TrEMBL record:
GO CC annotation terms, alphabetical: membrane
Keywords tagged on the record: ATP-binding, Membrane, Nucleotide-binding, Transmembrane, Transmembrane helix, Transport
Annotated Polar residues bias: 1-15
Topological relation to the membrane, as annotated: Multi-pass membrane protein
Listed Pfam families: ABC2_membrane, ABC2_membrane_7, ABC_tran
Cell compartment(s), UniProt: Membrane
Organism taxonomic ancestry: Eukaryota, Metazoa, Ecdysozoa, Arthropoda, Crustacea
Record protein name field: ABC transporter domain-containing protein
Length: 423
């Protein structure tokens, strides 16, 4: 699919370079964010401090809004403004937490996701797409393996590839990944990034990822990198030009040093909670240093290039959007059939889910029988007998109500995050 430029542009009182989310009534993590341009076939890596707003930014770009977060700005696909629903239609979003059900196999998970997302496809087409996706993401050998819980079932790298595969079923033009290498060793992280680079190149996808402490090889493998500091962009451009920019400011990266670690150490500042009274002067110096670097980037040639490319537009944009927006939501019948099938698999593969309920029913039946075994069931009921029967019925209803509620809560806790994400 020929995707077009995926750009973020902003509109804050006429200024084209500011996005200002507000969280809880206080200024949010982004005090100033310039336009971001990523072309089809490119992978943009976003680096920044923990808690610096990378996940919030990616959620916003993908059309997901965190409750209580207000955003002033727009996202464009080419030169067309995109609403949150529009962005959900063209973006695949892979959250940091893998939303997988442990009692499904790899193939069953992909089949359920494809059935829900590809409403206009027949079951044969869905099966063909699932089979192709398993091959592309190197999951064919574990297609019949149970996903299991972390540490059990498939490996961590396979879990992450499965999450990526599920988002690629609908062939989104833009793929947004939040910390795809989180918790992975260096080898697994390299394989994941290489897979994303291959997807971007062969499928002409626009891919945006946030990443924490990439190795030197991974850092230079990205098409573009964006380094964030204090809600602003300190650098946005090609990774091999990054050192040249920082060198002009007097911060050259030492030889044989991981560039991402070095740049993050320069741009890191202590928060008010971390800094003691004796560190206040040092903290102020760090803040001024970061502000100076971010200000320098505003006049850097990379910023000018982003603004120049943003104005060019592209005539193929509208065909791409119309094609991508062609995906329809699955019918109620199709959704119900998929969810019921998924639940029956849970009962089949986790027999304790219904064996415990059956045991509870038998236990309460025995207790009630022993308690009220001498209850008279004749026509000459008196007032006391009526209250005794009411007590039996009340205890029976109460016991069954708690039993049903307890089983529902266990399923709710496991599946509700995935249910929300599938909406």
């Amino acid at each position: 699919m020929n995707a077009d430029n995926f750009q973020q542009q902003t509109s804050n009182q006429g200024s084209p370079e500011e996005v200002s989310p507000v969280l809880g009534g206080d200024p949010g993590v982004f005090s100033e964010l310039p336009s971001i341009l990523v072309r089809p076939g490119q992978v943009l890596a976003i680096l920044g401090e923990s808690g610096g707003g990378k996940s919030t930014l990616l959620s916003f770009l993908a059309g997901f809004h965190l409750q209580g977060v207000l955003v002033d700005g727009i996202v464009q696909f080419g030169n067309t403004d995109m609403t949150s629903n529009d962005r959900k239609s063209i973006c695949g979003y892979v959250p940091q937490r893998d939303l997988l059900l442990p009692y499904l196999t790899v193939k069953e998970h992909l089949h359920a996701q494809a059935t829900l997302r590809l409403a206009s496809h027949t079951q044969k087409q869905v099966l063909d797409i699932v089979s192709e996706t398993l091959t592309v993401f190197n999951l064919k050998k574990v297609e019949d393996s149970l996903i299991g819980h972390p540490g059990q079932g498939i490996s961590g790298g396979e879990r992450k590839r499965l999450s990526l595969a599920a988002e690629c079923l609908a062939k989104p033009s833009v793929l947004v990944c939040d910390e795809p290498t989180s918790g992975s060793d260096a080898f697994t992280a390299t394989l994941l990034i290489e897979l994303l680079l291959t997807l971007a190149k062969k499928k002409r996808k626009t891919i945006i990822v946030s990443i924490h402490q990439p190795s030197s090889a991974l850092f230079f493998s990205f098409s573009r990198v964006m380094i964030m500091a204090r809600g602003r962009v300190a650098y946005l451009g090609r990774p091999r030009e990054c050192n040249r920019f920082f060198e002009t400011l007097g911060y050259p990266c030492p030889n044989h040093f991981n560039p991402s670690d070095y740049y993050m150490s320069i741009l890191s500042t202590k928060t008010h909670q971390q800094a003691s009274s004796t560190d206040s002067a040092s903290q102020q110096n760090d803040v001024e240093k970061v502000e100076a670097i971010c200000n320098a980037f505003q006049v850097h040639i990379s910023a000018l290039e982003v603004q120049h490319q943003q104005q060019k537009g592209n005539s193929e944009l509208h065909d791409v959007i119309l094609t991508t927006f062609g995906h329809k939501q699955a019918s109620i019948q199709r959704q119900m059939a998929t969810l019921i099938t998924r639940y029956w698999r849970r009962l089949y593969r986790i027999p304790s889910a219904w064996l415990i309920g059956m045991g509870q029913g038998v236990f309460f039946a025995i207790i009630l029988s022993l308690t009220f075994r001498k209850q008279k069931m004749t026509e000459d009921f008196n007032k006391i007998d009526v209250f005794d029967v009411n007590g039996i019925l009340f205890a029976f209803v109460l016991a069954n109500g708690f039993q049903i509620a307890s089983k529902t809560c266990t399923v709710f806790i496991d599946e509700f995050p995935l249910f929300l994400f599938e909406q």
